[in-house]
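re: the backbone from monday

yeah here it is again, tokenized this time
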């Protein structure tokens, strides 16, 4: 099956109003070019170096999403061009993004990552902290940051009830915050294995890698 066909097939399974970020991490630029030729423009990477290298090589109308954990000292490499940073999870990082966005004379769009999984190792802010950060981001403290919404990763587990519970909780929190701050519009949840459930639970942005580009040999 070709990448172009996989993109088409995936888009057919996605609800109206849900956007697709094609996760191209570890895959060569030629794979992205195939998806690009099929008309796709939104791609996600989880490593800054890889994202910056692919940005240099590939057409400039691609919307690049950084979906992985971002270290403060690497913000500067993507600040000039990044379309959306999905996994913002600390005040320190927010401050650095503000600084680099201002230096580049632009607004940077971000999502706050909320910790919804049971696993200890997952990044993200607890709900309460995320709530406080959302309020801060809606004051005048960060004029070059545009908070678009929230992102979450469910526990990697076969128990669909657990996954559903985590997605549903994040969706309720998102709705609550959206009532206070109507500019919030994006809820990024769902990967190859759980995006259908995520959409049922209210996701409007899915991040799909292996179902489009095939299995990865490393992460
Ligand atoms: C790798 C990755 C994905 C895509 O995973 P697949 O299972 O290949 O669809 C989605 N989100 C994040 C944050 C990732 O790191």
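seq for it, each position gets an aa:
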């Amino acid at each position: 099956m070709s990448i172009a066909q996989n993109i088409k097939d995936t888009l057919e399974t996605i609800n109206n109003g849900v956007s697709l970020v094609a996760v191209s991490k570890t895959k060569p630029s030629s794979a992205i070019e195939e998806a690009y030729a099929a008309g796709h423009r939104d791609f996600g990477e989880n490593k800054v170096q890889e994202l910056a290298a692919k940005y240099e090589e590939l057409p400039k109308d691609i919307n690049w999403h950084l979906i992985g954990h971002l270290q403060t000292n690497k913000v500067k490499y993507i600040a000039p061009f990044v379309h959306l940073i999905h996994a913002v999870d600390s005040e320190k990082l927010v401050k650095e993004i503000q600084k680099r966005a201002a230096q580049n004379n632009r607004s940077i769009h971000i999502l706050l990552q909320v910790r919804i999984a049971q696993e200890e190792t997952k990044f993200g802010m607890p709900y309460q902290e995320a709530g406080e950060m959302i309020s801060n981001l809606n004051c005048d403290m960060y004029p070059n940051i545009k908070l678009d919404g929230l992102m979450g990763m469910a526990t990697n587990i076969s128990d669909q009830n657990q996954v559903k519970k985590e997605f549903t909780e994040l969706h309720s929190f998102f709705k609550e915050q959206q009532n206070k701050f109507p500019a919030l519009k994006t809820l990024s949840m769902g990967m190859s294995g759980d995006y259908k459930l995520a959409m049922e639970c209210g996701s409007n942005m899915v991040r799909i890698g292996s179902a489009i580009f095939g299995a990865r040999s490393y992460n």
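Residues 160-180 form the longest helix (21 residues). Strands lie at 19-23, 42-45, 63-66, 84-88, 108-114, 145-152, 186-189, 205-208.
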